[in-house]
Write a structure and sequence with these properties.
With 489 residues, the protein is of the alpha+beta class. The protein is built from 18 helices and 11 strands. Helix 4 packs across helix 5, helix 7 runs parallel beside helix 15 and helix 11 packs antiparallel against helix 15. Keywords: Membrane, Transmembrane, Transmembrane helix.
Length: 489
């Protein structure tokens, strides 16, 4: 008689209870049931496999955590991980069932037999559900990743894994907030900020342009040929503001020939802002502000500090001052409202809102709301950042979270008058901002009243934005970036 057979031969409730208890132990630590039943070779192999998997997972989480973040943005590895998780679930369920089989008493009543099978089914279910959920989450994440980030971006750009930023000291990403309201035709990019990121340290400068900037030149080519003296819009409803360029390109394919629909707007706006700042624009990210509310709701809200009452909704409600947790709809009003303030105050709130979301999107929040977040991101985000660049950008984001400095410079009145902008000043301040050590930046407010030395507009071109007050005494602007942390309440 083999070791353990005497125990198996004992029927009744005691033998069944013991078998189920050891089956549960074997579900938690593979091989326990086989070793107790005298099947030491099989039990030892299962235990070794289990400890090997556990050790590998522990080592990966402890010593290779940063590498895991980089691997998490590689779709081909995510697909393999999803398959591996499913295989793990199948093996685990098999271990549970087989563990019960080697310990189950041979003489059981019909009731005990059904009870034992039901208990094992519950154990299998308890094992299968989290593994299946993990595999499903991995698949959903991969699907969202490949839907938002295409291989090669939108232009098939090749990325060198050894030098993903092509030897550049900085990568410049245009962050766009698109306001595609139901009562509006097309998309207006009411939020336009260039994030200029040091590729070695992660230090970042946010350069914000107002939506109502006028008198700017479009890039050389068909667009410049159509508007040789600066962009003047497309009829009386579009006076020639910066936030109109995106939709103008989508509506007029001939100004960006050869570029497909839904890529014309980003292409022309990137080139236009590159000319305004005299700064290379590498990539863009467009966020649909209405879909953005879904992301915030999926996170369970976002906590911000409101300094002044902000009208909310169409029924006279108000977001009161104080530290508040806002729903998606409330956050949308917080970021978009101009009532009682201005475009420029709103620009500051939008940046602080984005900073709060980035800070509060912790792993626990992401995991518990993963499906909702992935679905909202697919509806809300579009970009030309290629998949192949994501590992390098994840590494940069690690630097940002580990203490990299984030500074902000807004080209708004009184530093820059939007209807009569000084483009030479904008370009000089941009060059200074991206070349200055960000840790030497003071927290003083940026800018003081300044005249426009260079209008960038030909005589006779209309101006609808604010201009410098008549008789204002010129004074030299500071135009220094400020720490984003210091500027957000």
């Amino acid at each position: 008689m083999r070791e353990g057979d005497g125990d198996r031969s004992s029927g009744g409730a005691g033998g069944l209870s013991r078998a189920l208890a050891l089956t549960l132990a074997s579900a938690l630590v593979w091989g326990v049931a086989h070793i107790v039943a005298g099947r030491r070779l099989a039990g030892g192999l299962l235990l070794a496999l289990y400890l090997g998997l556990l050790a590998s997972a522990g080592a990966a989480a402890t010593f290779f955590r940063s590498d895991l973040l980089h691997l998490a943005v590689r779709p081909e590895l995510l697909e393999r991980l999803s398959v591996a998780l499913l295989a793990l679930g199948v093996v685990w369920v098999f271990v549970v069932i087989r563990s019960y089989q080697v310990l189950r008493p041979p003489r059981l009543s019909a009731v005990a037999h059904v009870s034992g099978a039901a208990a094992v089914a519950v154990m299998c279910f308890a094992v299968a559900v989290p593994v299946a959920w993990s595999a499903h989450g991995t698949y959903v994440y991969r699907d969202a990743l490949t839907s938002i980030f295409r291989s090669g971006g939108t232009n098939g750009k090749q990325v060198d894994a050894d030098d993903p930023f092509d030897g550049q000291d900085r990568v410049n990403i245009l962050l766009l907030g698109g306001d595609a309201a139901e009562d509006r035709s097309g998309v207006r990019t009411d939020s336009m900020t260039v994030a200029s990121i040091d590729t070695r340290t992660g230090d970042t400068v946010l350069l914000s342009l107002p939506r109502n900037l006028e008198g700017f030149q479009l890039p050389p080519g068909p667009a410049r040929d159509r508007f040789p003296y600066g962009f003047t819009g497309d009829g009386p409803q579009t006076p020639g503001l910066l936030n109109e360029v995106f939709q103008y390109a989508e509506d007029h394919p001939d100004v960006v020939p050869g570029v497909p629909k839904n890529e014309r707007g980003p292409e022309l706006l990137k080139a236009t802002i590159a000319g305004i700042l005299d700064l290379r624009i590498d990539y863009y990210i467009l966020v649909d502000m209405f879909g953005f509310a879904d992301i915030i709701d999926a996170m369970g809200g976002v906590e911000v500090t409101i300094e002044q009452p902000i009208p909310y909704g169409l029924e006279g409600a108000v977001l009161e001052p104080g530290r508040r947790t806002l729903t998606g709809k409330e956050a949308l009003w917080y970021g978009r409202s101009r009532t009682g303030s201005s475009d420029y105050v709103r620009m500051g709130r939008q940046k602080c809102l984005l900073a709060a979301i980035a800070e509060q999107a912790d792993p626990q929040t992401v995991l518990t709301s993963f499906d909702k977040l992935a679905a909202a991101a697919k509806r809300t985000l579009s970009t030309d950042i290629p998949q192949e660049l994501l590992p390098a950008l994840v590494k940069l984001s690690d630097e940002v979270k580990n203490g990299a400095q984030i500074n902000s410079l807004q080209f708004v009145p009184p530093l820059i008058y939007t209807g009569n902008p000084d483009f030479d000043l904008i370009r000089r301040l941009t060059a200074e901002a991206v070349s200055t050590d960000p840790r030497q930046v003071s927290g003083a407010p940026a800018g003081s009243p300044s005249p426009s030395a260079s209008t960038g507009r030909s005589p006779g071109t209309p101006s609808t934005g604010p201009s410098q007050p008549s008789g204002a005494e010129p004074s030299k602007p500071s135009g220094k970036p400020v720490s984003l942390q210091d500027s957000c309440p």
